[in-house]
Task: inverse folding
DNA sequence: AAGTGGTCTAGACCACGCG
DNA sequence: GCGTGGTCTAGACCACTTT
């Protein structure tokens, strides 16, 4: 039951300190030798722990210098607006257009809910992402109330739900499934995005899995891609 | 000057044998101890080599059994038609509508070409992907002639360019960048996909990076997502 | 020169799958 | 019981960055 692996303990110890901001982004964590001493172990074990943190995207290793805390990579493959996390940065502003509230599950959700989720009420909120003061993405989100309390509007960190999860609840996004469709805009969505009814927009249904058992975040996004395409990257 | 790392040699040795089919998919590669003996080294080094192959998606480890050769994961995040690599499998048939031929670079390519690519002529081909005999995706592809000879139509393995690259040339796809836009169908594209002009379709611009230096594959895809959405998944 | 991470050795014991 | 991969020890030397 208890994972008594030494490298796992080290890995979690450091991860928690990163999440809590004790090792802030951009700084270096203690050297491998220092960690060895602290945990009374050998470099092989410490390196295994750091390798895991590397895979999870918490640190980057720099030979001759140390292991640097990095911004966790873009919520793991979340499709991003072009430039959002790239070199040419557009200023993306997020507005909370519907504050988190308890409601029923919306049948529009494209993924099957778990038994536990079906039994639970859900929390819903809506955001609009703007670039240059023009709305580009309309985003609806749901999660199970049984898995996480209703988040307060003031808790959104820079409009980001994931940053809130990570920094306030120590929960990380572990993976995502997405479905993409090109559709004509409905009257309602068109109004929200400043478009005409029938204009081509991108509809994304997404399910994010988190490190907290039972907590999935479901999303329903409408994107105006005419000016800012949606982009994503992969590497191995 | 020791030219290369031991684990790297082992890694490449095994990778080549997998690519060549000496270790077919589904079989087990030699045990760690056997590899140790063969290369006169220790398990630490062998395990480092196997860890790399694991990351690259060539093998899966099974405790108590061995390391099994697996189907390389879905071209690394290539967006796939729903069900294509999932449980409910649609039969996707690929038709080569334009055979590979030497031509000029098309300005529609959404990514900047490298200096070497600009100097080179390029190879172009076009395919249509059908489900239930109905066209769903129209796909244009380009690559630099200087980086790879003109591939023969008969060399396409199950309509797949990537399988051809892997099995015939031992080249693997290492990563991809994509841009997605929702657009109204042009007359030409509409005709190819059996749609009306102006219908909403998904336009994907993609650049695949390969393990062969200088070889990138550029793609320009038009997808009818009304019936079969495009899907992708991530995990960490 | 000192400190960091990268590679490697030569062992050990454990957990798991299977006959 | 045996072979497999998983974890771990206690060292060594190298390549790289900084002082």
Result:
């Amino acid at each position: 039951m208890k994972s008594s692996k030494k490298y796992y303990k080290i890995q979690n110890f450091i991860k928690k300190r990163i999440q809590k901001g004790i090792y802030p982004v951009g700084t270096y964590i203690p050297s491998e030798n220092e960690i060895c001493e602290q945990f009374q172990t050998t470099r092989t074990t410490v390196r295994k722990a750091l390798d895991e943190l590397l895979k999870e995207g918490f640190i980057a290793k720099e030979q001759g210098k140390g292991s640097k805390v990095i911004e966790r990579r873009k919520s793991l493959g979340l499709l991003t607006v072009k430039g959002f996390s790239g070199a040419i940065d557009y200023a993306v502003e997020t507005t909370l257009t519907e504050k988190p509230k308890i409601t029923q599950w919306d049948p529009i959700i494209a993924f099957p809910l778990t038994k536990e989720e079906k039994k639970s009420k859900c929390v819903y909120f809506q955001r609009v992402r703007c670039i240059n003061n023009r709305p580009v993405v309309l985003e609806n989100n749901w999660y199970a109330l049984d898995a996480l309390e209703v988040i307060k509007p003031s808790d959104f960190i820079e409009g980001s739900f994931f940053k809130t999860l990570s920094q306030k609840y120590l929960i990380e996004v572990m993976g995502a499934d997405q479905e993409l469709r090109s559709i004509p805009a409905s009257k309602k969505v068109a109004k929200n995005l400043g478009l005409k009814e029938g204009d081509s927009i991108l509809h994304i249904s997404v399910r994010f899995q988190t490190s907290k058992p039972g907590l999935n975040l479901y999303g329903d996004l409408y994107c105006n891609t005419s000016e800012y395409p949606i982009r994503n990257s992969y590497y191995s």
In short: The beta strands of chain A are 59-62, 66-69, 80-81, 92-103, 122-131, 134-144, 173-184, 200-210, 216-223, 230-235.
